[in-house]
Amino acid sequence: MSDWRFCPRCAARLVAGDEGGRRRQVCEAGCGFVHWDNPAPVLAALVEYEGRILLARNRAWAPGAFGLITGFLERDEDPAAGVAREVREELGLSSGAATLIGVYPFARRHEVLIAYHLPAHGEIRLNEELAEFRLIAREKLKPWDFGTGLAVRDWLASPLR
């Protein structure tokens, strides 16, 4: 359960209660508020650039740690449009049509990942979030066993790529 202590509607204390088949935080005063604590939707882009796959390192990550381009889905945003927005914001690239790879739970960060493959073009201009990037030949790309690595695994195994 989350660490919320008070109801955002009426300021009463939140207590554990059964709601929707699970233990959740509910308003003690009975105003009807339930803290559902749903995971955040995150978009992931497997970016294909000049025939290679672009992996990037976030400034907060350890040197040598690279991954897909990711970002949060905005309210009322189509996921395919959102992943193209993330590629534009983080890399300065325009992208072609986004193809869904899959949807993956990422419990460690309380997120659900929606992963797409996107061909991209233009001049790479990293935004302030990213420290560096690498371009990897498809045949040298290796998936990792968590988070966006599962999307890399599925994309590599797909006969459609």
From TrEMBL:
Keywords: Hydrolase, Magnesium, Metal-binding. SUPFAM superfamilies: Nudix. The keyword Cell division does not apply. Its cofactor is Mg(2+); Zn(2+). It catalyses: a 5'-end NAD(+)-phospho-ribonucleoside in mRNA + H2O = a 5'-end phospho-adenosine-phospho-ribonucleoside in mRNA + beta-nicotinamide D-ribonucleotide + 2 H(+). GO terms for cellular component: cytosol. One of its GO terms (biological process) is NADP+ catabolic process. GO terms for molecular function: metal ion binding; NADH pyrophosphatase activity. Residues 37-158 form the Nudix hydrolase domain. Belongs to the Nudix hydrolase family. NudC subfamily. This is NADH pyrophosphatase. It comes from Candidatus Accumulibacter adjunctus.
